[in-house]
Amino acid sequence: MGGVPPWGYRVENRKLVIDEARAEHVRWIFARFLEIGSGTELAREVEKRGLRTPRGNRIDKKFLYRMLNNRAYIGEAVHKGQSYPGEHDAIIDRATWDRVHAILKESPRKRAARTRAETPALLKGLLYGPDGAAFSPSHTRKGDKLYRYYVSQTVLKHGAGTCPVGRAPAGEIEAAVIDQLRAVFRQPEIVVATWKAVKAQDGDITEIDARTALQQLDPLWDELFPAEQARIVALLVERIDIGTAGLDIRLRVDGLTSLARELMVDNGKEAA
Fold first, then answer.
1. Parallel, antiparallel, or unpaired for β 237-243 and 246-251?
2. Could you tell me if 237 and 52 are in contact, meaning their C-beta atoms sit under 8 angstroms apart?
3. What is the mean pLDDT of the chain?
4. Which residues of 47-62 are buried (b: 16+ CB within 10 A; e: fewer)?
5. For residue range 259-271, what is the model confidence (pLDDT) as tens digits?
6. Residue from 136, 107, 138, 146 nearest 224 by CA
7. Which domains are present in the chain?
8. C-alpha distance from residue 11 to each of 17, 27, 79, 87, 143 (Å)
9. Contact predicate 47/41, CB 8 Å
10. pTM, whole model, 2 decimals?
11. How far apart are alpha carbons 206 and 194 in whole angstroms?
């Protein structure tokens, strides 16, 4: 054999043998991916669990996708692109493997779109009306179509007409907020200020590192899962006030710095 065995196995007498302690983590990773369908979110949960690769390195999204595509876990060996029954025991059953790969066949953008209706409240807890009352996510259905919107607590408690802005279509207001956030990522003065803030905390970070980290989020935004989008919005936005004249978005002072540091870690630029 040779090389490092797949995570969850060890080598005995030149054969793969299941390392049960790590195999349990492998089974959890496959099962959790079935639940959330997002490599980005899964990598974050793996990090919180403190799991590491066989070499002791951080488990990132690329490592997870290699795991999810490694046929060794279903007891097979691959040679020159062809898979054959292996001499080792499987960690993952075939039904789980097939369900995982049915998800993997979809593009990240399609997977994100499919789950967006299940967790649509991107601005939950952030949106307030002209009277200071919070807006809550709600929806109605007409036939097979789902209509999402945010509605004022004042209207919910006291009826229509009690607030100048009673409700707002969710898709439109979420798109407006995201457009403003994306514009923030592209502003040179924001990039420089973020770089200086990160550098003050972590030292050896260049302005190019900060710019690259922030700029990568813009084109990837539509492929992020709703839960990840909501987490980033909550990290960056302190409050959104909606009025008859439009939106006023108040950003968190330290939010962009925290996000830039996260993105630089994901890019292998973990600060010393």
1. antiparallel
2. no
3. 82
4. eeeeeeeeeeeebbbe
5. 777 776 655 544 3
6. 107
7. 9-105 (3.90.1750.20), 127-266 (no CATH)
8. 6, 19, 18, 12, 57
9. no
10. 0.53
11. 11
